[in-house]
Amino acid sequence: MESTISLLSEKHFLCSLCEEIFSNPVTTPCGHSFCKACLRVYWSRSGSDECPLCRKAFGSRPHISVNRILADVTENYRKTRLAAKSKFFSMDELQDEPKNAGELQKMVQERVQKIEKLQNSLKLLKSTCLREVQESQRVFSSLLSTLEKSHKLVVTAVEQKQKEAEKRVERLVKDLEKEILELDNGHTNPEHLDDKERLKKSFSDIPRAMRDWSKVTLENDPCVGFTRQAVVDFMDTVTMEARRLSKAELKRLQKYSVDVNLNPRTAHAYLYISEDRKEVRHVNKRQEVPENPKRFDRVANVISKEAFSHGKHLWEVEVGDKTDWDLGVAKQSVNRKGKFTICPANGFWMLSLKNGTQYIGNTSPPTFFSLSHKPKRLSIYLDFEEGRVSFYCLDTGTHIYTFKDTFTDKLHPIFSPGRPHGEKNTAPLIISSSCCSI
């Protein structure tokens, strides 16, 4: 048989789908042969039951089983081929030969399973996208309904004010007309009246107290602030809805929690790193540390051992009652020596607290804002592909701030506990080993 095999070219033993030597070959009713796994993958991808080579369609997917004769011939060819090559290559070189049939089959199966996982992931993605659209529809429909109600309330209140003004003016005009009539009656000539009428006139001429009309005015702008207050009330509703969505969002992000550890070799000499690499404090005294090109020498920063170049990541930091701190991410390639500005252009995306109340997004120029609740625990979320670094208050579950940019370099979580101010701000920043539930 070996002499017969040697007369055949290699193409007779290759699967036309993977272009490798047959592994568990099967033959279709039309006479063409393929690897069993390759044919299954082809039918799964194409969604049709036809021959990949001649495109002949089968009424239904045929039952296929391994062609034992072709399998034996293929195996003998593989052995003959290896024996021939052994004349020219050492045994060490033969280790680089193609894998055996079992290993190839395993590799094929792994790829088939990967296809199934990707398809299942796509189904889940479509489901979550649909859920997001439905949630968006519900939220915005509710907000639009609230907005319409607020507008109607403003219109009703304005109309009520107008009606009240109209009624008041109507009453005042009647009073004025009555007084005008009374005043006009006082000019009647007494000579033309008889004794009885003259007597009545003498009593009626007694002047009665007239209204002081100089003090009577009509407010011509009674609706000041109606629309503004309606907008403020609506914004409160939007804020409450945003907080609810933020809390739900943060819960969904918990699955991206990662373990973050500080890298002492990068820490400024004034920073003390705990043995478990989870805490950093400013000791206000230079420590004896070895020189390292990765160490910050002017700015009291330290970065994590972990670097992220793709994917989504979430970590938690406890800031407690500290009055100063800086948190965020930094490029692996940032300058760590000398003086520089902390900003995205220099590879830093950080949120800072200064003087206990002033929160700053380190943009250029800086973004200043205040928070109604002072966070004691923060979650930092990095989405590398989307170019987002977001900060959340874990105490309330609310979103604080988001940087939007394009990331190309590896990113490290970065920390600065701030300088002590007497007995203040001496507490450490603490990295949680696992994110807590909201």
TrEMBL record:
SMART domains registered for this protein in UniProt: PRY (SM00589), RING (SM00184), SPRY (SM00449)
InterPro entries: B30.2/SPRY, B30.2/SPRY_sf, Butyrophylin_SPRY, ConA-like_dom_sf, PRY, SPRY_dom, TRIM/RBCC, TRIM8/14/16/25/29/45/65_CC
Cell compartment(s), UniProt: Cytoplasm
Pfam families to which the protein is assigned, alphabetical: PRY, SPRY, TRIM_CC, zf-C3HC4
GO cellular component, one term: cytoplasm
Coiled coil regions in record: 155-186
The entry's keywords: Coiled coil, Cytoplasm, Metal-binding, Zinc, Zinc-finger
UniProt lineage: Eukaryota, Metazoa, Chordata, Craniata, Vertebrata
The protein's name in its UniProt record: Bloodthirsty-related gene family, member 2
Protein source organism: Onychostoma macrolepis
Residue ranges occupied by any B30.2/SPRY domain in the UniProt entry: 240-434
A molecular function (GO) term: zinc ion binding
Family: Belongs to the TRIM/RBCC family.
Domain RING-type: 15-55
